[in-house]
Write a structure and sequence with these properties.
The chain is an all-alpha fold and 411 residues long. It has one domain: Amino acid/polyamine transporter I (Up-down Bundle), CATH 1.20.1740.10. 80% of the residues lie in helices and 0% in strands. It starts with a helix and ends with a helix.
């Protein structure tokens, strides 16, 4: 296995081990009980099979320009929302964690700003610095979580009374659907287009490792924390770490929170700058000749946007939860669209691959609709998604118009 495998694994795992992801997977365990791990495994299996079929296929853009603009707009909206709102939330979380766990006198916002500045410097330094640091961030986070998990599995098996552990109602069909659809959100990173092809075995190792880590985390979380508390907590990972290893567990989880934050912010900056640079290059040859400069400029712009969101106190408002949820749903929607385009553009006739991938895309679209309908504030969520898609399409249209003028001048 070459270095590219470890880079890809580090990029992909970063979202799964981030503080935001740990909150979602822990709440799923608290809500669904012992049916949460099988639902997560089913979602992982579906995403792995799809990734193994389409990861070697490029995204084929639509030939009709208006459809191209709409598709590019969806891509821009999803990646921009991801890179702005999730980092805003996790960076502030990392700041509070550092303040409460390590240095009480150090301002939490200052620490968040330092992390953001350091990650921006990595992106200004180039892809090599980003990829090497990503492996360190992800490995450190996985190591810390593994220590907590193994300690929980082999040092008592949980302190909850058996009657408390089993006193959980069997989830209704709606809960089962929600658990399965929610599981899809963890594995979208593995369905993103890659620069180079991985073998099916390499993909299997990545998906299997990621799924095992999350399922084992759910297992120890449900063994040590009451389900109701797990489902309602905003910091379930800290509760789990402290319950299993006491103060040492709190410190280990604190390290995992900070390194996981660095990993996921680094990943989303990389994902968003790559997407924007690629789309800008498709619209205009100006950006093809200077991709690294474009990447650095986009990283600076996104970092400035994140800093503004943190400075204005967005992380302390309820709206940020809507934005993060909307960003994940946009990512889900865009992944479904990209899966269709990759299969449709590379397979002219129906086959097992096309049928399976179309079915997967339909499941993604159904999950998107389900989450929008069942969200507790679906109106605010719909407004955010509509605005994001509208602004993304507008940006794509502006890029299209400017590229026409530029190409006309240079021809």
């Amino acid at each position: 296995m070459g270095n590219y495998f470890f880079i890809t694994a580090a990029m992909y795992l970063s979202w799964l081990v981030s503080p935001e992801s740990l909150v979602i997977v822990s709440r799923a365990a608290g809500t669904g009980g012992w049916l949460a791990p099988p639902a997560l495994a089913a979602a992982a299996t579906l995403c792995y099979c799809t990734a193994a079929l389409v990861q070697r296929l490029p995204v084929t853009r639509p030939a009709i320009r208006i459809i191209l603009i709409l598709q590019a707009g969806t891509d821009l909206a999803a990646k921009t929302a991801l890179v702005i709102f999730i980092p805003t939330g996790v960076l502030v979380t990392a700041g509070f964690t550092f303040n409460e766990t390590f240095l009480y006198w150090f301002p939490n916002f200052a620490f968040s700003a330092i992390l953001l500045a350091a990650l921006l410097i990595l992106h200004l330094a180039g892809n090599t610095a980003v990829e090497r640091s990503q492996q360190i961030f992800t490995l450190l986070t996985v190591t810390c979580l593994s220590i907590i998990i193994l300690s929980g599995l082999f040092t008592g098996g949980g302190h909850l009374d058996k009657t408390v552990q089993m006193d959980h109602p069997l989830p209704q069909s709606q809960h089962l659907i929600s658990l399965f659809f929610g599981g899809l959100l963890f594995f979208l990173g593995g369905l993103q287009p890659q620069k180079r092809q991985l073998t099916s075995l390499q993909l299997f190792f990545i998906f299997c490792g990621a799924t095992s880590l999350l399922i084992l985390w759910q297992t120890v979380a449900m063994s040590y924390i009451p389900h109701a508390k797990l489902a309602s907590s905003t910091i379930p990972y800290i509760l789990v770490g402290r319950e299993i290893l006491g103060q040492e567990g709190r410190i280990i989880i604190g390290i995992a929170t900070i390194s996981g934050t660095c990993a996921v912010v680094n990943y989303f900056l990389h994902l968003a700058t790559s997407t924007h640079t690629q789309l800008m290059g498709e619209f205009s040859s100006l950006f093809v000749t200077k991709p690294q400069m474009t990447r650095r400029a986009m990283a600076a712009i996104f970092s400035a946007a994140i800093a503004v969101c943190m400075a204005t106190g967005l992380a302390g408002e309820q709206h940020l939860e809507h934005y993060i949820y909307g960003a994940l749903l946009l990512w889900l929607l865009n992944t479904g669209i990209e899966t269709v385009l990759r299969v449709r553009g590379n397979h002219s006739t129906f086959s097992i691959t096309t049928i399976f991938c179309y079915m997967t895309s339909c499941i993604f679209f159904m999950a998107f609709i389900y989450f929008v309908i069942t969200y507790n504030d679906s109106t605010s969520l719909l407004i955010f998604i509509t605005l994001a898609l509208g602004l993304g399409s507008l940006l794509a249209a502006v890029m299209s118009v400017l590229s026409k003028k530029f190409n006309r001048k240079t021809s």
